[in-house]
Amino acid sequence: MPKQGIHPNYTDMNVKCACGNTFVTRSTHKGDLTVEICANCHPFFTGKQKLIDTAGRVERFRRKFEKSGAAAK
Questions:
Q1: What is the DSSP letter of 9?
Q2: In what side-by-side order are the strands of the sheet with 22-27?
Q3: What does the alpha-carbon distance between residue 53 and residue 12 come to, in Å, rounded to a whole number?
Q4: 41 labeled binding residue
Q5: Global pTM value
Q6: Alpha helices, H only, 1-73
Q7: What is the CATH code of the structural domain delimited by 11-68?
Q8: What letter does residue 2 receive in the DSSP assignment?
Q9: How far is Cα 49 from Cα 63, in angstroms, rounded to an integer?
Q10: Three-state DSSP class for 58?
């Protein structure tokens, strides 16, 4: 059993996102928390994330990879 009186007090807290999503979690933080982005609105989790190929880096990598012969293996 853990020692009494030395561990932080975990309490339920409400988290509210800028998108309007709210959920309850447990934390040592006192009061409610407001965040700018959550799992419901983050592009990575929603599948709306777009990879931007700046300066043709992806295409340059593919050409280099094909030349090395590693693509054939």
A1: -
A2: 22-27, 11-17, 33-35
A3: 43
A4: yes
A5: 0.51
A6: 43-46, 57-68
A7: 4.10.80.400
A8: P
A9: 25
A10: helix
Residues contacting 38, CB < 8 A, separation 6+ = 15, 17, 19, 21, 23
Residue 17 has pLDDT above 70, yes or no: yes
55 labeled part of a ligand binding site: no
Task: Determine the Cα–Cα distance for residues 20 and 14; give it in Å rounded to an integer.
Answer: 12
* pLDDT for residue 8 is more than 70: yes
Locate 16 and state its tokens.
Answer: 């509210």
The CA-to-CA distance between both ends of the chain, in Å, stands at 56
Task: Report yes or no: 58 and 39 within 8 Å, Cβ to Cβ.
Answer: no
Nearest-angstrom CA–CA distance, 49 and 71: 27
**5 φ, ψ to 5°?**
85, -5
